[in-house]
Amino acid sequence: MEILVSILFFLAIILFLRTNKFFASQYLNAWILPSAFALKCGVGLLFLQFYIFQHEDPHLKNDAGAFYHEAQILNTVLSESPSDYMKLISGIGASEELSLKYLGETNHWDSGKQAVFHDNRNIIRVHAIIDLFSVGSIIVHMLLFCFISLIGTYLLFLALRRYSALKPWLIFMLLLLLPNVLFWSSGILKEPLIVFGIGALAFALTAKSKRSTKIAIGALGLIVMLSFKPYIFIALLAGGYVYLIYKLAPKYKLISALGVPIIMGCIAIFAMPSVVDKGTHLLSRKQFDFSNVGRGGVHVRYEPDSVFYYFSPDQYDDLEISGDSVWLKNEIDAWKVKLGDLASPVPIHIEPNEDAWLLHFDHPKANSFIEISAINDEPKNLLTSAPKALFNSVIRPLPTDPGGKLKYLAFLETLLLIGFVVLAILQRKELSSNQRGFIVSAIVFSILLALLIGWTTPVLGAIHRYRLPIQSAILCCIIVAWRPSRKFSGFKRLKK
């Protein structure tokens, strides 16, 4: 039954892409979008194979399985209490007590005070809605996520086409086929929605279409970005601010576009030190949590005080783990973290427990774990660690870095992207003022996002996944600037 339903969904989407007027572009062959969808579905099956089916317990070992599993738990509430289900699925009228009542066994739903927009809950809600008609087939989820991301890629194509000297099919292929973008946008995590959000906002701002259509698609893109990756939207806003200054400045556009935000930022830092301290602390906490996960170990939940205890991998011999229960056999030093709180973790000496602790996380050290410069709630550490954070986010993994064989593919992809950048510079066309402003704003967006990723992420595999929006921004710059020519005129320009 699940296979039959999956096949029917696949054929229905292919038919929709082939016949719907919105996807009937005069610039692309009528079968390019259906073929692109089929390709993404093939990659999506590889995603499921690597990240779901090969794990003994996928629901606890990775986000992809966990979001899907917790969505199924959420849908069990529908039969128990439809009114409570509507509160949880919509977020309207829901309380933490209600979440604890029905979803206390979940790990990703409860994001605590740190989740301003509850992006984990939102992705669980999306999966829960799909689960209502997917007859339990995770492949249906993958098909719909591939469809969503393909729409985002198509919208971005429509936004860029008018500003590029490249052939339309080449623009679309560049946006579609970069391996990192293709793989993660074909899975069931947040990346397909990120691709849609970026494409929708770009379409609303630049594409030629009916005003009502642009407003509707732009509003949907805005909702998606705020719901699933608000920090990317903040970086987009910063890039948009730079573009606006560049466009309005009568002269010295580049100096104005970069100088004004820097001056305004310095004024804000000195005028609102408490905001800076709070932001630095939030980054410190994210870095600490991610570093603990990357180093591996065991996190347990101590319910009476609503705290987490963290034990490092070299302390495994002092623990007894049976299912979801954990006991401590000897006295030991560990860390204590308040559930969902922003307070700094504190060291604690723990004695053996009689009542079992609830196992929250148990995982070995990540293969591609690296040590990153600790922020430790010090704003100056953000500045001193910025070069290393940028290098980690943009260039690594290197062949000499820790990790599996996929690091070589990631490194080759980085070289490929750098090669396209060099080619676009050597064969660049004459750019208009608006196009130069766009490239400057895209670079600012990429730098800000790279800093956020590099400051907080100590796992190279995760860094490569998270920089998908950065790679997309670089591709957009390449598409706008590059004019291929038969004669490599760039070399002639260099000789002169």
Question: Key features?
Answer:
single chain, 496 residues, alpha+beta, 3 domains, 7-stranded antiparallel sheet, 22 helices, 7 strands, 64% helix, 8% strand, disordered C terminus
Verbal overview:
This protein is of the alpha+beta class and 496 residues long. It has three domains: 2-206, no CATH class; 238-277 and 373-495, no CATH class; 297-363, no CATH class. 64% of the residues lie in helices and 8% in strands. The protein has helices spanning 2-19, 32-53, 58-61, 63-80, 82-90, 96-103, 119-131, 138-161, 168-177, 179-184, 191-206, 211-228, 230-248, 253-271, 273-295, 379-384, 386-394, 406-426, 433-456, 460-466, 468-481, 489-495; strands at 297-302, 307-311, 319-322, 325-328, 332-338, 346-350, 357-363. The chain has a seven-stranded antiparallel beta sheet, with helices on one face. A hairpin with a 7-residue loop joins β5 (332-338) and β6. α1 (2-19) runs antiparallel to α2, α11 (191-206) runs antiparallel to α12 and α13 (230-248) packs across α14. The model is unreliable at 55-61, 112-116 and 488-496 (pLDDT under 50).
Report mean pLDDT, rounded to a whole number. Answer: 86
Please give the order of strands in the largest beta sheet: 3-4-7-1-2-5-6
**Number of structural domains:** 3
The radius of gyration computed from the alpha-carbon positions, rounded to a whole number of angstroms, is 24 Å
Q: What class, by secondary structure content?
A: alpha+beta
Poorly predicted parts:
55-61, 112-116, 488-496
Question: How widely separated are the two ends?
Answer: 68 Å
Topology, number of strands: 7
Main sheet makeup: 7 strands, antiparallel
Measured as a percent range, the helix fraction is 55-70%
